[in-house]
Amino acid sequence: MAMNPAHRQRGAILVYSLIALLLLFLGALYALRGGLTDTTLTDRFSERQKNTQASDMALQWAANQIGTTATVAPLEVSAQGLAWFLNVSAAKAVVPDAAYWTTCMTSPTSTDTCAAASLPSSVPQRAWVFVQPTGRTDSAACATQGLTAVYYDVWVHTVDSRNEAATDTEAVYKLCVR
User: Fold this and answer.
1) Are 41 and 164 in contact (CB under 8 A)?
2) pLDDT digits (tens, 9 = 90+) for 70-98
3) CB-based contacts of 130: which residues, under 8 Å, 6+ apart?
4) Pairing verdict, β 148-159 and 115-116
5) What is the dihedral of CA 50, 51, 52, 54, to 10 degrees?
6) What are the φ/ψ torsions at residue 28 (nearest 5 degrees)?
7) What's the pLDDT at 74?
8) Among 11, 91, 126, 170, which residue has the fewest nearby CB atoms (within 10 Å)?
C-alpha cells in the first residue's frame, strides 16, 4: 500500500515544527541563564557598594575612637587593652587576611584582635575595625600647630547581612601629638 504524499508532508511538517520548538526552547534557556547571571553579578556588585559605604561609616567610628582615646595620652598608652587597638611594632605590622578576620570576629587573641564598629541601626552590614601603629612620624605635617604627626593603619572588614559579600578597607589616620 503506497503512502499518500500529503500524509508524508504532514509528518515532515510535524518533525520540522518539533525541531523549531526545541531550538526556541534552547534559545530561551540560554537567554534566561544569561539574565540570571547578570542579575547575580549586579546583586553582588550592589552589596559590595553598600559594604563600601558601611566601611566609610566604620572608618568614621574608628576616627572618633582614636580622637577620644588619644586626648589623655599617646594612643599606644591610652588605647592599650582596647579591642580595636593592636599595639605592634612597625616590623610586625599585620596585613589581615580571611583567617585573621574570622579569628578576631569569633575568638579574638592578643595578635588577632578587632572591635565591632557601632553603625546606625538602619545599616544592615556589620563591620569590624582594628588600628595599629605604622611607625611613621612627620614633624612637618602638624608643624603649624607645633605638633608632630603620628600615623596609624586603620583596617575595616565589612560583611553584608547575608554573609555573601565582604569588603576590606585600609586607611591611614594622622594623629597630631605633642
Assistant:
1) no
2) 887 789 999 989 999 999 988 899 999 99
3) 83, 84, 85, 86, 94, 96, 104, 113, 114, 115, 154, 155
4) unpaired
5) 90
6) -65, -40
7) 83
8) 91
Is the four-CA dihedral 48, 84, 56, 142 of positive or negative sign? negative
Cell of 144: 603649624
Residue carrying C-alpha cell 550592589: 46
Query: pLDDT (tens digit, 9 = 90+) per residue, 152-175?
Result: 999 999 998 888 778 899 999 999
Q: What is the 3-state secondary structure (H, E, C) of the chain?
A: CCCCHHHHHHHHHHHHHHHHHHHHHHHHHHHHHHHHHHHHHHHHHHHHHHHHHHHHHHHHHHHHHHHHHCCCCCHHHHCCCCCCECCCCHHHCCCCCHHHHHHHHHCCCCCCCCEECCCCCCCCCEEEEEEEEEEEEECCCCHHHCCEEEEEEEEEEEECCCCCCEEEEEEEEEEEEC
Q: Which three cell numbers stand for residue 165?
A: 559579600
Write the pLDDT tens digit of every residue in 28-40.
888 778 776 766 6
What pTM did the predictor assign?
Answer: 0.73
Query: CA triplet 90, 52, 132: central angle to 5 degrees?
Result: 15
First to last CA, the chain: 111
